[in-house]
Amino acid sequence: MGRVQTPVLAAVSNRYRERENHIGTDSWPVYISMYKENTLLKMRCTDEFHDRETAVQFYNDCKLAEQARITEVRRQTKEILPPELYNLTELQKDANRHCGLTAGQTHDIAQSLYEKKLISYPRTAGRHIPRTYTTRCPPSWKKCWHGRNSVLT
Q1: CA–CA separation, 67 vs 71, rounded Å?
Q2: Higher model confidence: residue 37 or residue 85?
Q3: DSSP class of 152
Q4: What are phi and psi of 124, to 5 degrees?
Q5: Tell me: the pLDDT tens digits for 130-144?
Q6: Which of 14, 101, 105, 124 is most buried, by the most CB atoms less than 10 A from its CB?
Q7: Rounded Cα–Cα distance for residues 151 and 47 (Å)
Q8: 59-73 b/e with 16+ CB inside 10 Å = b?
Q9: Which of 95, 86, 73 is nearest to 122 (CA)?
Q10: Across-strand partners of 98?
Q11: What is the DSSP string of 47-83?
């Protein structure tokens, strides 16, 4: 097929076969919290437990122990992105999942709230606010759009 396409196609087909043949397994992480000198320490066991009973037994053994030894300390910073804007489809899915409402019921409620000027237009499929909208929005909103995770397109 070609010098470039052949290795790429081979890699794609190998990855496809790996995914098709993958057998998922459950794992049971064990988290332990304890106080030392009025400081709360939260720890996670680095071993993976593949059955619940072993994980529960290990957790109970740790609770009964009088002392613990810390073997490693790591600090991790995670950036949590804000949720994306709702579109009507996502609103209907969440309303069904959490409240048992049908898509029609959700649409009627959203339309009613829109007519009362309590929410923005509910039937949009967009998840981003056009940049041209910044000329019509309050000044306090504009500072929200200067970050890395801007919803402006």
Answers
A1: 13
A2: 37
A3: B
A4: -85, 145
A5: 667 667 766 666 565
A6: 101
A7: 40
A8: beeeeeeeeeeeeee
A9: 86
A10: none
A11: SPBSSHHHHHHHHHHHHH-S------------PPPPP
Q: What is the DSSP string of 81-124?
A: PPPPPP-HHHHHHHHHHHH---HHHHHHHHHHHHHTTSSS-TT-
Q: What's the pLDDT score for residue 1?
A: 46
Answer for the pair 107, 92: CB distance below 8 angstroms, yes or no: yes
Cβ neighbours, 10 Å, residue 134:
13
Question: Residues 85, 149: contact at Cβ < 8 Å?
Answer: no
- Given the structure tokens 């992105």, which residue do they identify? 81
Q: Cα–Cα distance between 75 and 71 in angstroms, integer?
A: 14
